[in-house]
Amino acid sequence: MAVLFLAAGTTHLFASFLGHHTYGPVVLIGLGAAVIAGSVVRAWWVGRHGHAAHHAPHLEARRGAGSARQVEVRPAQPPATESREEDEQVLWRIRTTVQDTPGSLAALCSSLADRAVNILALQVHPLADAVVDEFLVGAPPRVTAGELAAAIGSAGGTGTWISRADAHDLVDIPTRMLTLAVRAAEASELPAVLRGLLGECEIRWMPAPADLPQEGEPDGTTMRLPDAEGGVLVVSRPGLPFTPAEFARAHALAEVAIRLGPREPRWTLMLPNGAEVTIRRAGRQDLAAVTAMHRRCSPETLYRRYLAHKREVSQLDSLLSARFGYTLVANTPDGDVVAMANLMWDGSTAELGVLVEDAWQRQGLGTALVRRLIAFAADADIDTVYAIAQPGNTATIRMMQRLGMPLDRRIDNGTLIITVHVAHAAASSAVPRQP
């Protein structure tokens, strides 16, 4: 109100002043012209600068985008080789023990994420007073095992175990267990199945002690499992203790092998001379027929196979035992064994041996047996298979060459050792697959 009264009083005083002077109209006309000129100038100014202000946000956005491109693209653009390395990932398996408290897993994940490590799979193994976390991770090539261990340690992990992994480890646990259970239905494959579940480990067979309990639990790095053919399988994994979950899974696979019993796959093979043989899995029940075949073989044939002129019956019994390897035999329609091939494993390595009776040689029978053994080795996650022969044993050399797989040869103390890297061949689909 005060402003209104002040404006009214000022206007009245100004009008009274003009009314008493002769130049009053001139002043009014001048003020009107000034107001009109001021309005025109203001309209021009607002029209010009208002238009610029309307487009200013778009211009600033463009300038901002341009600046971002300069900062983001030019200085930070890596070389092509470096970009490809960042796109690649190295697979690692990590196992560590942490306190069973809220946030412990989150701390591990955060520490790995700080090093651009991607967690692909996770298993949690509960213990009495702690938790074992097992990760399958993908890390940039620049990240080393030592850096991974440091990241885990800084987040509270102890007893950390780290090893390289491969694409086979990407299979989820339920799928892997179902696959292993199918293979465990063949009791003789149980050692290979256990290695597929537990990784690198040592498996030995021993007679079952009288005081062995029906149900047990792992003793640190060793567990004992019932064998389908009697006795006990002693599984050892130095440096990496078994968890209760691993023991439960291994025991379940052993029970599958016991309950379903052995299966005996058979293949019928027609030889170039028109004869027909049956290839099948052998066992200790074939000891008499295998011994008879050895008696029919010439000393030269036996020497090429064993680098000795004879083989004791007890040694043949070991070759036929499913606890030590995988053996195939070829039977004629009348039941005679005319060929035998053995795959005797030691961890992830296996020795290959083939014996074909003299009258049945040069018919491709040995090659057919070896092809099936190599396919079995690939399924059993055996990395390398090697054969021992004399340097002049051209039959064995040609038989291995017919596999169509890369071979390594070396001479050790006058003995030729031919090695097949099954894992590499399996990755390149070079492993022979026959029905």
Give a topology summary.
Elements: H1 2-19, H2 24-73, H3 80-87, E1 90-99, H4 104-113, E2 118-126, E3 130-139, H5 145-154, E4 158-164, H6 173-184, H7 190-198, E5 202-206, E6 222-226, E7 232-236, H8 244-260, E8 266-270, E9 276-281, H9 287-296, H10 299-306, H11 313-319, E10 325-331, E11 337-346, E12 349-356, H12 365-379, E13 384-389, H13 394-401, E14 407-412, E15 415-421, H14 422-427
Parallel strand pairs: 12-13
Antiparallel strand pairs: 1-3, 1-4, 2-3, 5-7, 6-7, 8-9, 9-10, 10-11, 11-12, 13-15, 14-15
User: End-to-end distance, in Å?
Assistant: 107 Å
In the CATH hierarchy, what is the class of the largest domain? Alpha Beta
| Mean pLDDT across all amino acids | 78
Give the CA-based shape: elongated
CATH superfamily of the largest domain: Gcn5-related N-acetyltransferase (GNAT)
Corresponding CATH architecture of the largest domain: 3-Layer(aba) Sandwich
Separate helix tally = 14
Which runs of at least 5 residues are low in confidence (pLDDT < 50)?
A: 51-78, 427-435
Q: Could you state the oligomeric state of the chains shown?
A: single chain
Reported by name, the CATH topology of the largest domain is Aminopeptidase
Give the class from helix and strand content and strand pairing: alpha+beta
Order of helices and strands: HHHEHEEHEHHEEEHEEHHHEEEHEHEEH
Q: State the domain count.
A: 3
Protein name: N-acetyltransferase domain-containing protein
GO molecular function, one term: acyltransferase activity, transferring groups other than amino-acyl groups
InterPro entries: ACT-like_dom_sf, ACT_dom, Acyl_CoA_acyltransferase, GNAT_dom
Pfam families: Acetyltransf_3
